[in-house]
Design brief:
327 residues; alpha+beta; 7-stranded mixed sheet; 3-stranded antiparallel sheet; 10 helices; 10 strands; 54% helix; elongated; disordered N terminus
Amino acid sequence: MTLLLRLVLALLACCAALPAQADELRPGYLELTQQDAQHWRMVWKAPVLGGLATRARPAFPDFCTQSAPTARLEGAALVAESTLTCRRDLAGAQVGLAGMEATFTDALVRIAPLGRAMQAERLTRDNAMVEVAVVPDGWEVARSYTALGVVHILEGYDHLLFVIALVLLIGRPGAVIKAATAFTLAHSITLAGTTLGLFGLAQAPVEALIALSIIFLAVEIIKQEPDRPRLSQRLPWVIAFLFGLLHGFGFAGALREIGLPEGDLPVALLSFNLGVELGQLVIIAACLALIALIRRLKPAALRPATVTATYLIGTTAGFWFIERMIG
């Protein structure tokens, strides 16, 4: 086995052997909404997985005092609401999260002062505090939610494996682009409809079915025969569209966990969806480039590498399906 093939198989194995929690490491959400000259309503939504709920806490200037928070569980997140009383304006002061260096996920902060534009920024372990702007940038919501969309597709491992499996099934760049377009159109429909409250599905069965969709693609890849193309190979865009509707419900569940800014919902929804698409394009381009490299340097290694990656992807998805059905 050549060094190149060993490297390819190692990379594919790393892609398949991803955390069992798959799509559950979602960002936290900190919202500060000004009520009057001195009072701010603070909502802190921290996912249980990733460490935010137990290790991070809202941080604010010393001229503000916090009332006793009321807390509740919403799905897999802890939600705490309280009131900040500040002796002066927060403009120019630092707010954010303390303890993020010990966590495994990011957070979004939304600051809505009276009489000024809303401010939204992403908090990370390396940048856990932001300065409250006197004149916020009107593009902050778009930038923040686009970044969240990219992160979600790259760290939402079940969606990541589905896109990789779709590329392995089709292989041809033109057909992959058509299927990806159908997948995009479909999940945009269900993402928008669910987020706007027009329809929806329970999240638990959706997550299980998403794992099952990956298993289906893995089976289709293994059963490929050069002289007898299967339906998924003849009409891949149909398969991608149908499963895209399902994955859209999954994206909507993640977006609900992250939180949407009131008054900026259309911009946030469009930006998040754009971020998801940018992430998908990165995945598709990387997979096609890797396939092209193997085909050029050692064509005989392409099928063994594809089969190995497919078994790893299918096994991982099978574990997720069982885990989600039991849960």
